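# nightly structure sweep
# worker-07 picked up a monomer target from the shared queue
# config: single-sequence mode, recycle default, output format = structure tokens
# input follows
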Amino acid sequence: MRELKILAVVVFFSGVLYWGVEPFAHSKLHPHVEPADYTFADVDGLQGMNGDAIKGAELVAANCTACHSIESQGFPKIMDDASSAASYGVVPPDLGTSGAIYDENFLAAVIKNPAKATKTEHKFQDGKTHPMPGYDWMQPQEIADMVAYLKSIAPAELTNKEVYIDACQRCHSIKYGDFRFDGTKSSMLAFTPDENIKAYMGIVPPDLSQYIRSRGEGYLHTFINDPQKHLEGTAMPRVGLTKAAEDQVVAYMTEVGDSSKPKREALAGPFLGYLVIFAIFAWLWKAKIWREVH
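# output follows
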């Protein structure tokens, strides 16, 4: 009976800590943020319009390829990464996969007004302008045509690493993606040189090798979807990835930063089974001892 009373006291105070104190502390350390919105309902997107990829090809060639490469379609880089970064502040992305990894409504909104769509208007005040010009002077149908073209040339499948490279590596390094012990330069360093990206962003974006461990999967999803939810006023733009593409980015970060996760999770069942068996033997041993005492 005495043991049951002790157990009840322990359970009571553990419950107070778990359901009373811990949630309060968590709410202060990790304020609630709204779930990720993969519909991008707030953007000025396609407005239900369907585009013509053939017409869009002409518009993209005329308006985008002066800055953006589309290697898969025969539009190479006009400048190398260092020169592009010096001119624009950040290396412009190749558009070959944009129709696959970015939400189509977000793509349309970026074409119309990149600063507004990416939620970085606060960076471009007092005469400062986004390095990409807005095309809100175009007819909505023309923008829909451009998006249709980008979707038509997008590959059907991309690896997790390929999505990460196209979505994140212009600004972020993930050097442990191919960490090299011979001293040679990692191929997973950011494309934009540190001095240029620091001038453009205000700070060198962090290496993401261990962010899956330090931030966690839930945080990464809401942050990538809309950085302003966690860090209001941050210079990091909203990226506009689809849910599937974002899952692949986080999966790649997990492959790099938590490569032992599958092995660790595979041990969960056997370990819990061991604890159950050990508890049974411990209870049988206790019962035997107390029978002899009484």
